[in-house]
Every structure is written in C-alpha cells, then in structure tokens.
Amino acid sequence: MSHERPLFFPVLVFLAALLVQHIPLSTVAAAGKERIKNVKAEVIDEQIVVSAELVSGFNGEIIKDIQNGIPKDFYYYLLLKRKEKNWFDEEVLSKTVRITVKYDTLKKQYRVTHFEGEKAAESLFDDFEGMKQKVSRVDHVKIAPAQILKSRYRYYVSVKSQMKAAKLPLYVDYFLFFIPFLELDTPWSDSDTLSFQRGG
Amino acid sequence: MNAMSSNDPKTEKPKAKNTLRPVWITALFLALSVTLTVLLFRGIESPSLFSTNILVLTLVNVNITLAILLILLLSRNLIKLYFERRQEPKKTRLKSKLVAAFLGLSMIPSILLFVVASGLLTSSIENWFSIQVEKSLDHSLEIAQDYYEKSQQTVAVYSEQLGRTLLERNLLEGPYEELTGFLQDQQQEYGVQGVHLFTPVLQPLATSVQSPPQTPSGLLPPTPALLEQTAKTGRPVTSVQSTAQGDFIRGVHAIKVKNRTAAILIVDQLIPPSLVGKMEDIKKSLEEYKQLKAFKNPIKGSYILSFFIIVLLIIFSAIWFGFYLARSITVPIQKLAEGTEAVAQGDLNFHIDVQATDELGVLVDSFNKMTADLKQSHEKVEDANQSLRESNRESDRRRAYMEGVLQHVATGVISVNEKGAITTFNPAAEKILNVQAAEAIGNNYTSFFVSTKMGRMAEILQRIELQKKESLEEEIVLEVRKNLLTLRIALSVLKGEGEPLLGFVIVFDDLTELIRAQKLATWQEVARRIAHEIKNPLTPIQLSTERLRKKYFERSDDFDKIFDESTQIVINEVHGLKMLVDEFSNFARMPAPRRTPQKIEPILQEVISLYRAGHREIVIGSSFDETVPLLNLDRDQIKRVFVNLFENAIEAMQGHGRLNLMTAFDLPQQKVRVEVTDEGSGISPDDLDKLFLPYFSRKKTGTGLGLAIVNRIILDHNGQIRVTPRQPKGTLFSIEFPI
Question: Where are the domains of chain A?
C-alpha cells in the first residue's frame, strides 16, 4: 500500500469518476436524437412565459416501457439566464416542470399529470398520440414576474428535458447503482433574447 | 513491526497511520458519492443551478470506479511487486511468495464462488422472469382487459339498442312518464347501473338508476371528445371512469334524428370495487413485473458487479494482508540484513526500531542487544586501547628517560636476556670496559667476556646461576687496557610474573679511582694516626732522655732515681710502640678469610657462653631466627668480630647492663642480619663516620684498630656493618651477610 502522496488516490478516484461519466453506460442511449425545439420566451401580462417542444423524445424503449405500464417522468428545466460579456452567462432563476405519464394497461388509458410547482393537472388520453402531444410540450409556463429583469442586461431562456427512471419496486433501486439515471437527456436549447420594455 | 535503522521505530505507528490515510480519504469520498447517489435516487428533484447531468453521472459512475479503483490498487501493488522482484529478486522472494500464496488461496475460491453465485443468481433471476410467469400475468391481464372490453361492448350495444328503440317508439317526443318508464324497464332488463338521457347540450332529460342508487354524486359528464366522436360516427363510444364506488363503464351514444343529435344517451355499467381491486392488482402485478423485467439485466449486472466487487475486495484484502504479512516479516529481515552489513562495516550505533511481538521481534531484540554489547565491548576495547596507548606513551617516556639515564649515568649497565645474549650495553659500560656496544650486543654474555679476556665478568653470572640467587654483589679486579680496575658489580635476576626468567641486569661502577682515593685517604689517615701514635710515646721518651742528660750533666744526686724513672718510661713507651707496630703488622697482614658454609648461630652461642661466664653482671639476651640459612664464614674471624663487639659493649656499659644478640633472615634481600645492642654510653654522632677507621678510639686504652679489623673482616665476607645510636642510650651494631 503506498504511504506516500496520501491524497493521490482520492484525487485519482474523483478524476476517474469525472472521466467515466463520459462513458456511455446505458443500453437506453441517453445521447440520442431527442432535442428541445421552438423555445419561446416572452413577457405576457408582466410574466415571463416560456414555451418549448420536445422532439424525438419517445424512442422505442420508452414507448415500450410506457405501454407496459411503467410510469415515466419527463422533466423540463427552464433557466432564465443573463448574458455576460466576458464571463459565463449568469443563471438568474430556474423552474422545473414535471410531466408524469402512466398507462393503465387495464383500462387502456394514458394518465398524464402535469406538475408545476405546487400545482398539478391531470389528463386522460385513450390514444398514444394525444398523450405524446401533451407530454412533449410545455406551453406558456410562467417562470417569473417580468420585474426581475433589469434593463441594462439581456436575458434569454434555456430549456432542457430529461427523463429519469421511475422509482422501482421492492427497493431494487438501492442495489442498482449502475443503472443509468437518465433515459432521456436533451442538450440545452436557448431561446432568442427576451424582449421586454426596459422601464428601469 | 517497526523498522531504523534508524529507521525510526517509534515512527512505525505514525507511518502505519500515514499508510491508511489515503484509504480513509478514498473511502470517505466514495461514501459521500454513494450517499448522494442514494439520495438522488430517492427522488430529490430540486433542480440545481448546476448541470445535474454531470453531477448525477459523476455520482453514479463513481460507484463503478470503486471497482476500477480496486483493480487499480490491486494492479499497482502487483506491478510494484513485480518490479521490485526484478530489481532485487532476493529481497522480494518471500514477499512474492506470501502475496502469491494469499492471492492464490483467496482468488481461487473467490472466483469459484463468484462463478457459482453468479450462475445461481442468473438462473434464479431467469426463473423469476420465466416465460410461464409472464404468460400467466399477461393472460390474467388479458382476462381483466377482456372483461372491461366485454363490459364496454355490452354497454355500447345496450346504448345503441336503447337509442334505436327510443327512436323507433318516438319516445323522445312522447310524455316524460313513458320515457322514464321505458328507461327504467330497459335499465332493469339490461341490468345496468344507470341509464341517463341528456339533451345535446347535456341538460338532463331522464334518468334511471339502480336502486338503491350507487351512482356517485360526482359522476363526470362525458368529455367533449367522446361526444364529438359519437356524434361523428353515429355509434356509441365507451369510456371507463374510476370512482370510489368502482369503475363505471360508460356507453355514450348520440341519438341522431335526420343527422342532428337529438339526445345523448349514457348507459353506465358498474364494476364493483372488489372486482376492480382484484383487476387492479393483476394490472399492478404485471406492471411491476414488466418494470422489473426491464431492469432484469441491470439487476443481474448489479448483483454480479456487487459479487465482483466483493471478490475484488476479498482478493484485495488477501493481497493487502499478504503484503502486510510479508512486510511484517521481510521488513524486519531486511532491517536485520542492513544491520548486519552496517555492523560488519563498523557502525555499532545501528539500532533496529521494529516493534514486534513475535519471534522476529525476539530476533530483532537479540540483534539490538548484540550490537549494544558489541558497542560496549568496542568502547571498552577502545578505552583499553587508549589506556594501552597512554601506557605505551608512558612506557616510551619512561624508556626514553631510562635510556637517557642509561646513556648518561656513570654506572655501567649490561642487560642479558634469558638466553644469555647481551641486550643492553650503555655508554658507561663501554667506557669502563673499553668495549663498543655494537661489539657486545647480541653476543652471548659469557663467551663475549671470555673472548675479551674479561672472564671475571662472566664468572659472576655463572656464580649467580649456580647459587640460584636473586642478586649478587661483588668487587672484582679486572684488567682493562693493561690497567687493573676495581669494579663493584651488582647482578640481579630479572623475573616476570609466575617466575619465568627474563634475564639479568649487571650494574657496575669503577671503584678504582675511588678506592685509590680512599686508600690514599686511608693511608693518609693511617699515616697521620701512626704519626700521632708514634709521636705520643716519643714525647715522653724525648723528655725522659733530655731529663736524664740533664741530670747526668748536672751530676745530680737523684740521677739514679731519675735514670731509673726515665729509662722505665722509655722502656714502657717503646713497649707501647712495639705493641702498636705489632698490631699494625697484624692488621696489615690479616689473612684472607677461609670461608666455609656453616651456621652462624653456634659461633654466636660460643661467644655468648664465653662472656656469660666471665661477666655475670651483664645480662646477655639472644634471639636466633631458625630460618637463617648457612653462610660462607671464616669461623675464627667471625668469632673475633663478635668478641670485639662484645668487649666494646661491655666496656661502654662499664661492666653491667643488658646486652642483646639477635639474628634474622631477610628473605627478600637474601641477607642474614645480626644485631648487637647494648645500653652503654653510646657513640657521639660526630664519631659515627670515623668509628671504623684505623686508630680511631675514644677509649683510654687500646690501639683503635678493633673496629677497623671488624670492618675489614665483615668486608672480606662481603657483608656490611652499620652503627646506630639507641635511645635513650646505647648503641646498635647491625651486620648483614649476604647468603
């Protein structure tokens, strides 16, 4: 056992972890065709509202899992960012929208629950396409009041979508350390610069 | 165990802590990552401002790196061992064997166990997800689904039939009672939960529900999508609505008259909660099964990976233990080897600081003790060497001093070794004997002096050897350069411890000039005394003769008387002179002693007896040492000596007092001492050095030659006489005879 350079191995472990993260581990490839498109950010009624669309978010494995009754959570991360000149853009605030889809194999219905903060809205769909349409969009989601915007800065919104594996039964997840956490992971997609009346 | 060489021992424990520190730090990192992973898996979904993608992946994958880390550590240790073995094969052989043994002993069963366990696990999991199980669940769900479908179909048929009947009988336009009665009849006939009739804008027209009513108050109206669908197709559509009272299968039928929706008919069929629950259970079971099945391979992989990690842990532990055990054995052995080399090179300060409680510890302790003892011995040897060097220096100084003394002393010094060879011949000896040291040194003493016609020098050595004496003193006369020299020789035997003979030392002085001077002085003194003694009687002779002449020429009346007196005086003085001359002749012609070995005590006893008988007022005491050996004595002369001493003592004591005679043998000096003590008037200190000179006397009568003769006799016997005044009165005469 080496007794020199005592911090060597912990650092090695951490670096290895950072490197290993780039190794694709999931058979359900997280790096797929899924993208966020048509990101729109606008100020409506003194509220910053965001709309976006998930494209190619439903691959074969996800569809199969849904139709087997496995609940899936689609997360939409909405970040309001401030542009900086010579530095990384500042993240002002963020909001997460979670859309859960669960197919009732008995009644053959898709139950879509839309979580936005404390609010939740549930919809039932008998057809896949209806459900897919509902799940693949965030429509006019209010993320913040427009007052937080400062006139001297320029803002935009970044949107990303991920889908995590749902909680597994029988505490199996405690043993599945190596299951890839993300079945779906889109790159960040930015909106155009936010237009707002610079009042102050 | 802990190793120094000074490798410090005391540092072993801190070193052990340092060795484990990276392990603890690494474990902490991993534990932290695992904890965070678990927390995230539990559904903490707060989006951070950071990219959760990287964080989650990092945390998840760091768990995989646990296995990589173990493999790395294993590989590192093994590779290190491999290189150590290549560089120093002898020093790492035992370590390699131990590690290999532990690795083999742990790896084989671990791998076997891993394979078996993985196989068992795989087959078990495969059994869990067997086709039969899946089929059973699928079929169960299908049955439930069929039931729902059937129910939906039934409801759809009922609603279509009911709609048709309503149109055929024109009940929509008819009285309300007839309509509701019809609905009730149909509801009972179909056995459905409820039949509801609505206007196209969903205003209630008529309702018939099962009694008692079980329809929940919150029953939702049909969705616009359903209405649109039934209106479009003209056929009933069904939906399932879940409530607390069970699932309602709803058939919605838009009744059309001339392509216009005249009414909306809803037929509700209830599936009771108990049945719903069972079917839900079936559905849930299948969904869970499907979920699990989706993760079958990851589950398998995780378990196998877990087994693999455990196997790696076991192997790693075995290797670590092998290294630990090897280190605990090889480090002390290496330290011992280093210590041995260091000690061989003279470093006795080497100390092995290895803490161990086993046999190696005993060995190390023994080694340390050995080096400490060696160091102590070395220091003692050093001290002894230092002392020896100092002694040598001191010896050298003394030798130099002695050589200086020998070089400059006026006494001749010759030393002879145990083999009889001359080893020292100082300058004084060269001068006295007229011989160069280089000619003498190395030669046999006896043969050298015989060859140089100085046989008398050789004889004295032979004599001491024959007589087995420790020392000998003699005066010899030697012819050197056609001159006769009188040498006073003292010969001593040199002996070491345990009496081995080391040699002889001959020390001699040239007394020729001294004797000549002494003789001259003595003869001068003798002549003076003779002149004095002769002059003494001459004066009265002269006076008497002059008186006689005077009276003769005066024709004195008392001439006859004067003639008689004067001639008597002349006769007396002439007689005295004659005695003096006779005594002197006797002294001068005193013969050399004829010495024979005999005891001195009988002679002394004879003298004592002689004087005891004649002087009863004198107490004569005697003390004779029985150890006194035989002496070479001339009996008559020795007797004469003690007679003279007794006479002087008795005269000094004026006929009464105590006279003591004592003999003693001085073994170290090899001399016999005889002491005569009296209680007489004593001798003045001024006269002590003249006492033995001829014609010296404080007595009114006597020739003054008595003690001179005594001295002469003693000297002829190679002895020595001394006189010491006694206190409070008396005199001690001490005579020493060599044996």
Answer: 34-190
Query: Which residue type is seen at B641?
Result: V
3-class DSSP state of A85: coil
Residue B488 CA to residue B474 CA, distance in Å, equals 6
CATH topology of domain B517-588: Helix Hairpins (1.10.287)
Is the CB of B18 inside 8 Å of chain A's CB atoms?
Answer: yes
In this prediction, residue B355 carries a pLDDT of 73
In the block, tokens 């001295």 appear at B711
Nearest residue to A92 via CA among A16, A147, A171: A147
Confidence of residue B45 (pLDDT cuts 50, 70, 90): very low
Residue-level length of chain A: 200
Instruction: Return the structure tokens found at B622.
Output: 């005697």
Q: Residue B500 phi/psi, 5° resolution?
A: -75, 145
Q: Name the closest residue on chain A to residue B316, using Cα atoms.
A: A1
Token look-up 């009672």 returns B177
Q: In chain B, positions 272-291, which contact chain A (CB-CB < 8 Å)?
A: 279-280, 282-283, 286-288, 290-291
d(CA B374, CA B378): 6
B69 to A13: CB separation less than 8 angstroms, yes or no = yes
pTM for the model:
0.47
Q: Which residue has the tokens 């007022």?
A: B617
Distance CA B296, CA B290 (A): 9
Residue B382 has pLDDT above 90, yes or no: no
Contacts 24+ apart (CB under 8 A), B38-43: B38/A174, B40/A181, B41/A167, B41/A173, B41/A174, B41/A181, B43/A167
Please state the φ and ψ torsions of residue B620, each to the nearest 5 degrees.
-105, 115
Burial class (CB in 10 A: 0-12, 13-18, 19+), B249: buried
Lowest-confidence range among A127-131, B60-64, B425-429?
B60-64
Cβ neighbours of B469 (radius 10 Å): 15
Backbone dihedral region of B669: left (phi > 0), alpha (psi from -120 to 50 degrees) or beta? alpha
Among partner residues A68, A77, A177, which is closest to B290 by beta-carbon distance?
Answer: A68
Question: How far A116 CA lies from chain B's nearest CA (Å)?
Answer: 12
| CATH superfamily of this structure's domain B596-738 | Histidine kinase-like ATPase, C-terminal domain (3.30.565.10)
- CA B567 vs CA B392, B443, B539: distances in Å: 83, 73, 13
Pairwise CB contact (< 8 Å): A13 & B64: no
Residues of A in contact with B291 (CB under 8 A): 65, 68-70, 166, 168-169
Answer for the pair B198, B205: CB distance below 8 angstroms, yes or no: yes
Q: Where are the domains of chain B?
A: 12-129+294-342, 149-278, 409-510, 517-588, 596-738
The ipTM (two decimal places) reads 0.72
How many angstroms from the chain centroid is the CA of residue A176?
A: 22
pLDDT at B373 over 60: yes
Degrees (nearest 5) of the Cα angle B218, B222, B225?
145
Pick the residue of A106, A125, A162, A182 with the most B CBs within 10 A to test the interface with B by mutation: A106
> Does this chain's domain B409-510 share its CATH topology with B517-588?
no
- Take residue B307 and report the two structure tokens written for it: 């087994």
CA angle (B519 as vertex; B517, B520 as ends), nearest 5? 60
- Are residues B225 and A130 in contact, defined by beta-carbon separation less than 8 angstroms? no
SS (H, E, C) B463-490: HHHHHCCCEEEEEEEEEECCEEEEEEEE
Closest alpha carbon to B297 in A185, A64, A25: A25
| The 3-state secondary structure of B578-630, one letter per residue | HHHHHHHHHHHCCCCCCCEEECCHHHHHHHHHHHHHHCCCEEEEEECCCCCCC
CATH fit for domain B149-278, picks 3.10.300.10, 3.30.450.20, 3.90.230.10, 3.90.79.10? 3.30.450.20
**Tell me, what DSSP letter sits at residue A186?**
P
B123 touches chain A (CB under 8 A): no
